[in-house]
Amino acid sequence: MNDVDTVKVKRNLTALVEFSRVINSSLDLQFILNNILLTCMGKFFATKGLIGLNMNGRIIVRSSKGINEKILDSFPDITSDDDLDNNYSFTQFLNVNKIRAVEKISSSNDLVGIVCLGEKLNKSPYSDDDLEFLRTIINISASAIQNSIVLFELKRVNRVLDNRIHRLNSLFELSKEFGLISEKSTTTKLLVYSIIGQLLISKFAVVLSDGIDKHILESKFLESDLLDALTNVKIAEIESPVDKINLIKKYNRLYELKIELIVPMQLHGETKGLILLGKRVNHSDYTESDIEFIYSVGSLAIISLENRRLFNEALEKQKMEEELEIARDIQKNLLPHSIPQYKKFDIAAYNITSKQVGGDFYDIIPLNDSSFCIAIADVSGKGVPAALLTANLQAFLKIICKHGMSLSEATELINDLVTDNTMDGKFITFFWGVLDEDVLTFNYVNAGHNPPLLIRKNKIIKLDKGGIILGVMKTFTPYESPTISLEKDDMIIFFTDGVTEAMDKNGIEFSDEKLEELSLQSSALNASEIIEKIRSSVAEFAAGTVQSDDITLMVVKVK
Question: Helix/strand/coil (H, E, C) string of 401-470?
């Protein structure tokens, strides 16, 4: 080796040692890449150069010198697995842009990236010594690049972790806040502010669905346009987030409103509402982490809203229970506390409601020493309205009984009073009459009620004369009020339709025929025994089913 070559080798070694010192003095990736390019271009007098790194399997240009942006934009899409020597797009890019030297950056047999250098200022080709020197520089740089990439990835992961920890802390605090809120509007505002505060969103909407209608709780879109765009959207079918690409495919009308993300609010796996989000202020895309955060906040909000709904339902139920308890007390006080005893009449009665409060009513009102009024009614509906209507009926009945009016006139008056005091289609089926011990007669009026059964010598006479149901309209035709003579051992069975319409588990009714047959079989029993026989027969018939209507029975037997 002559003196010139020796000097050249020493100079190269010195340059490599200095390069190694500089390149390993920093873990900043851009500093390392810039030094590699500057060193190579300075050494070879190259006019341009670039370094592409393997980023998740694709070669991405991370540093360049002497190459404009337009040329960089034309860099081909190549992967770390591509054979660069036989890649037509890459070869064409090199030729068009006069890239004369390409070397791979490798570490542990993995492709880290590539170094590309343009032609020299003097147009001379790269010699074998040049390429060998270039490979040496790249080998020295490979570890520094790899370490820098690892550090960069660690920093990125740490940033992601920090962001996740921050969001978890936010979710923890939000969960406490949502748990303390009872107002729907406040819940919605907390939901919206927590999302736009984290992600910087200018346009948004929160929509709830009850399965039928859609309700916009909060919106920065024009409400009419949003509702129009949601017309054919089935909220319950959106079970996962919908990104921009799928919005264009499935919900283009929403995308036209500048909505870029839909996140469902789910409860027990069912979608109860949607969070609709527009473009972010910084124009960045929504990441998976962003979507997870939005979904989590939405879940907290929908739980809070559902808890509020359940709480209100519980309050409403408690209020209803209190009203039903009042109605039950009203109804209990309306029924006779005891059955009056008479010399010539054996009387028994039975009442049981299907719900806490029923609509059946019966009463026995003494008129004088020898006669009394007996009444039975079935008020439409249940609960407090039915109990109050029953109270009105009893009040009318007790007052009218004291005025000595005929049954026909009294019934007309009761009907007119009930009609004036009812609404929403309420009505009463009503039967009443006057029993006289001295002359053994029964004067009655049937206002649309189930005809009581008069059992006489194994025959049935139905007491069906009267007129229209109470409360439907004012009286326009006088009520009939026949008087029948009673005989010893006659039996009258008064009942409501809860007896004859009681159903078995196959949906078959007890029926009028079965009651009539049972009544004939029971004619030798006393009033209480007849009540018990009918009651037990109905209970046995309907065993295993829920009682669907109130049951009221009264029996009057002539001694």
Answer: HCCCCCHHHHHHHHHHHHHHCCCCCCCEEEEEEEEECCCCEEEEEEEECCCCEEEECCEEEECCCEECCE
Q: What is the CATH number of domain 3-153?
A: 3.30.450.40
Burial class (CB in 10 A: 0-12, 13-18, 19+), 456: middle
CA–CA gap between residue 489 and residue 509 (Å, rounded): 30
* Beta bridge partners of residue 215, listed in sequence order: 208
Considering only CA atoms, which of 265, 276, 130, 269 is closest in space to residue 203? 276
For 334-387, give the DSSP string: HS-SSPPP-SSEEEEEEEE-SSSS--EEEEEEE-SSSEEEEEEEEESS-HHHHH
Residue in 487, 499, 474, 476 with CA at minimum distance from that of residue 523:
487
C-beta of residue 426 within 8 angstroms of C-beta of residue 470: no
Where are the domain boundaries for CATH 3.30.450.40 in the chain?
Answer: 3-153, 181-310
Q: Which residue has the higher pLDDT, 119 or 320?
A: 119
> Residue 176: pLDDT band by 50, 70, 90 thresholds?
low
Distance CA(372)–CA(367), nearest Å, equals: 5
Task: Report the Cα–Cα distance between both ends of the chain, in Å, rounded.
Answer: 149
Between 438 and 212, the higher pLDDT residue? 438
- Residue 381, pLDDT > 60, answer yes
Q: What's the confidence (pLDDT) of residue 468?
A: 93
Predicted pLDDT of residue 223:
82
The structure's pTM equals 0.52
* DSSP 8-state class, residue 235: G
Measured CA to CA, the distance from residue 381 to residue 369 in angstroms comes to 36
CB-based burial, 315-335: b 16+ in 10 Å, e otherwise: eeeeeeeebbeebbebbeebb
Tell me, which fold does domain 181-310 have in CATH? Beta-Lactamase (3.30.450)
What CATH class does 335-558 carry?
A: alpha beta
Cα dihedral sign, 529-534-539-541 = positive
Nearest partner of 492 among 461, 538, 537, 528, judged by Cα: 461
57-61, 132-136, 177-181, 369-373, range with the lowest pLDDT: 177-181
Residues 6 or more apart whose CB falls under 8 angstroms from that of 296 comprise: 167, 171
Q: Which residue has the higher pLDDT, 462 or 277?
A: 462
The number of CA neighbours under 13 Å toward the Cβ of 58 is: 5
* CA–CA separation, 387 and 379 (whole Å): 8
